[in-house]
Amino acid sequence: CKVHKICVLPGDGIGPEIMEVATKALSVAGGKEGETFEYKQCLIGGAAIDATGKPLPDETLEVAKQSNAVLLAAIGGYKWDTLPSAQRPERGLLAIRAGLNAFANLRPAIVPRQLADSSPLKRELVEGVDILIVRELVGGIYFGQPRGFGTNEKGERIGYNTDVYSEPEVERIARVAFEAARKRGKRLCSVEKSNVLEVSQLWKEVVIRVGADYPDVELSHMYIDNAAMQLLRNPKYFDVIVTGNIFGDILSDEASMLAGSLGLLPSASISGSGPGIYEPVHGSAPDIAGKDMANPLAMVLSAAMMCRYDLAIPKVADRLEGAVNAVLDAGLRTADIYKAGTPNTRLVKCSEMGAELMKHL
Amino acid sequence: CKVHKICVLPGDGIGPEIMEVATKALSVAGGKEGETFEYKQCLIGGAAIDATGKPLPDETLEVAKQSNAVLLAAIGGYKWDTLPSAQRPERGLLAIRAGLNAFANLRPAIVPRQLADSSPLKRELVEGVDILIVRELVGGIYFGQPRGFGTNEKGERIGYNTDVYSEPEVERIARVAFEAARKRGKRLCSVEKSNVLEVSQLWKEVVIRVGADYPDVELSHMYIDNAAMQLLRNPKYFDVIVTGNIFGDILSDEASMLAGSLGLLPSASISGSGPGIYEPVHGSAPDIAGKDMANPLAMVLSAAMMCRYDLAIPKVADRLEGAVNAVLDAGLRTADIYKAGTPNTRLVKCSEMGAELMKHL
Ligand SMILES: CC(C)[C@H](C(=O)O)[C@@H](O)C(=O)O
Ligand SMILES: CC(C)[C@H](C(=O)O)[C@@H](O)C(=O)O
């Protein structure tokens, strides 16, 4: 039992509302297991731009680095959409990922049994889907140099970016993915575009080499276009997927939709050494901000992932996840996951969902 | 009425079988409208590698350039999978696209009413979906320089590619997309990742500028990750999508799956000046090659697109499309689209599908 230092970043839109529920739930669940949390709240995203002019103030990164883990709600909103892109809220997100070297983004794509009917896919295809997407998060085309604007030899204006991976970058993310696969279904699918791109050829080669250390994990390879297709055709084929930054961005959002809603999907971005970042997959939903309509459950499940990974207090994670299951079983639904006419369900506000959650902790 | 010179590239796997059906159907349909076709058959892909050592022999490109249009079936197979990637069949495809400057890849994602139940998505979501994806095909990260392998400043081995677009490259594909949207639902969605990538910022800026010439077309913008999600959540939202080479590769394959099968999906890759390339979306299916099991309909529909676009003989296209509809209405299904137990359908071989098709022409 110790004090866990959590850097709390409510961010924008519905962020503060859902963060309030999640930290309360975390404190209560931790209390039952004798764990204590110390929260330091900092600015990021639009809120930080308004207060300091920067989407990631130095102080926020400092506090994050000194903490055991970072809980982040959501960033962005219409208000900042017209800023030049180098000054937008998203930059804060990219900067904190890079600043903490949070290179491994783990995004479970699970279809919760209580909501299997909300999937756009037919029930028989998605029931039981349980995919873990491991996305490289601090390399690839998001950060590759050179990048920018210029002119080509014909004098035409161009925009360009570099997609690049080094051997050690691929190796460390591959190891995270193999380790994860080993603890689950023991199947890993590496996704790239090696029939066209050199960066993907290096990726594939390194993944195969690392795979030699994991003979118990079945490794397969798939082109990104085919993977985008197979996620629809037969999502149960997948156990763990490992892929680069931009392909992971696309695939994990596509896979999220298998659940029909982002309302229950958490994510972890871990560094292996320092603190990781735990955040829901959904965005800041500026249209419903401040209306007590948000769904706090993905934020709570992100806190659970934090307990499991960085804080190594799995019992607290179990409690949080158990409570989320209990409120869903009890039929409570926020607007995003409510479907009129479904028997034994009831539309609730964010605060009520929070209050009910506490009862089940 | 004139003689249309067609460069015929059967390629690998099931390619020759489906090409035979398509050229026969084309000749018959053309005959009824007084149009004549002259076919010159050339090598590409694995077949070309075996015969000449090159996936795109110079002679093939020469014949293609002298023709009015290129009909391509499919390339690739297990046999060539172990070759170094610079010598693989796919390179032939990339080379002929670049060689003919076929910059605009048009891929309709339509869910044929006869097969709406084969979609992995719920019927109410896909019924009536009619999306046209306009993918830039000879630029972006597929062809950007510099590319290759090297070492970074830490001495680590790297693989890298450059994603780059120039203003004129974006402008010409945007015009194709706006023109297409104008003839359809008048809605165009440009897909990029401008919140992270400079190449996407240029893309978006140019698309907006070109859009000023098309006030009758409603232009929207979407990030690629969100587009991958919305294609599942609400595919009917989309009319025409315009996007770069790699994003188009991914999105068009994902969108293909909305139909449940690739068996009916054609594509056109047009240059605006010289001959375009017309090919089915599906691959060479080496596992069923030579077994008379392939579905020739996407190849026939590709020939129809050729008649509509490059050859400007829409009446022949109408005849081909009408015949495809007729055989589907008659319940004929090749193995890939056959679902045991569906009333009034019958499993047929490739040759039988071809013969029935001729009857309806
Ligand atoms: C907001 C954006 C920069 C970010 C990304 O592309 O990584 C988001 O889409 C995500 O997946 O977390
Ligand atoms: C075979 C491959 C090089 C090709 C591509 O990526 O363009 C294919 O996936 C396609 O979409 O036509």
UniProtKB/TrEMBL annotation, chains A, B:
InterPro entries: IsoCit/isopropylmalate_DH_CS, IsoPropMal-DH-like_dom, Isopropylmalate_DH. Keywords: Amino-acid biosynthesis, Branched-chain amino acid biosynthesis, Cytoplasm, Leucine biosynthesis, Magnesium, Metal-binding, NAD, Oxidoreductase. The keyword Metal-binding applies. Pathway: Amino-acid biosynthesis; L-leucine biosynthesis; L-leucine from 3-methyl-2-oxobutanoate: step 3/4. Its EC number is 1.1.1.85. It comes from the Eukaryota. One of its GO terms (molecular function) is 3-isopropylmalate dehydrogenase activity. Residues 5-357 form the Isopropylmalate dehydrogenase-like domain. It catalyses: (2R,3S)-3-isopropylmalate + NAD(+) = 4-methyl-2-oxopentanoate + CO2 + NADH. It is an enzyme of class 1 (oxidoreductase). GO terms for biological process: L-leucine biosynthetic process. Its cofactor is Mn(2+); Mg(2+). Pfam families: Iso_dh (PF00180). Binds 1 Mg(2+) or Mn(2+) ion per subunit. Catalyzes the oxidation of 3-carboxy-2-hydroxy-4-methylpentanoate (3-isopropylmalate) to 3-carboxy-4-methyl-2-oxopentanoate. The product decarboxylates to 4-methyl-2 oxopentanoate. HAMAP family: LeuB_type1. This is 3-isopropylmalate dehydrogenase.
